[in-house]
Amino acid sequence: MDCPKCGKEIETPTETCSNCGESIGDQNNSNIFSQRNTNMEQLRLFVGDNADYYLKKWENIEEKRESWNWAGFLGGIFWMGYRKMYLYVIITLGIFLVLDAVIPVSNLDPLFSLIFALLIGLNGNYLYYLHANNKLRRINELFSDPEHRKIAAFKTGGPSWLGVASALIFIIVYAVIATQLMIAAGKLP
User: Fold this and answer.
1) What proportion of the chain, given as a percentage, has pLDDT over 70?
2) What is the predicted pLDDT for the residue at 37?
3) pLDDT digits over 17-55, tens only?
4) Is the pTM of this model over 0.90?
5) Are 51 and 43 in contact (CB under 8 A)?
6) What is the 3-state secondary structure (H, E, C) of the chain?
7) What confidence score (pLDDT) does residue 78 get?
8) Do residues 177 and 97 touch, judged by C-beta distance below 8 A?
9) What is the pLDDT of residues 41-97, one digit of tens each?
10) Which residues face 16 on adjacent strands?
11) What is the rounded (10 degree) CA torsion for 77, 78, 80, 84?
């Protein structure tokens, strides 16, 4: 286990960290950040812009996964790209591709888009929380030095306009594949 404040590895159960004096206390508490083996400074560095917003939303995320995220609702895949959640972008477009292959072109497409926007709006904070914790867990496994962990969190996380451009490229690739599938299935001339 690592100290939630300084990140130093604690090998024997103790009430305080021998490095910084942080109270470790009951490890079965509901503080999600100590349960997830990350610390606030790492999360702040990882999130970058709007860290206060996300840390507040994540305080009780395990009990209540749904919390509204306007950027996720309005930006959808572009918000995911901005937050470097590329796997979620690919999964989302894969789901849309399957829907396009199974359901004929119809007036339901705007409905699917609205449902997707609502789902991302309601679950975007939780998805980003999972993404951040998975990345930080990997960083903590790779680096034992707290300073290296902080640097890696800063470099790995944060917003990215290049991620938005990447999401746009993924959407273009999706559109080309979906169009070809529909032409092959006779759904388009």
Assistant:
1) 81
2) 45
3) 777 777 665 444 334 454 444 578 899 999 998 999 999
4) no
5) yes
6) CECCCCCCECCCCCCECCCCCCECCCCCCCCHHHHCCCCHHHHHHHHCCCHHHHHHHCCCCCCCCCCCCHHHHHHCHHHHHHCCCHHHHHHHHHHHHHHHHHCCCCCCHHHHHHHHHHHHHHHHHHHHHHHHHHHHHHHHHHCCCHHHHHHHHHHHCCCCHHHHHHHHHHHHHHHHHHHHHHHHCCCCC
7) 97
8) yes
9) 899 999 998 999 999 999 888 788 889 999 999 999 999 999 999 999 999 999 888
10) 23
11) 130
Here the contacts of 122-126 (C-beta below 8 Å, separation 24 or greater) are 122/66, 122/67, 122/68, 122/69, 123/65, 123/66, 123/72, 124/69, 124/71, 124/72, 124/73, 124/79, 125/54, 125/57, 125/58, 125/61, 125/67, 125/68, 125/69, 125/72, 126/61, 126/65, 126/66, 126/67
What the block records as the tokens of 93 is: 């477009």
Residue linked to tokens 């980003």: 128
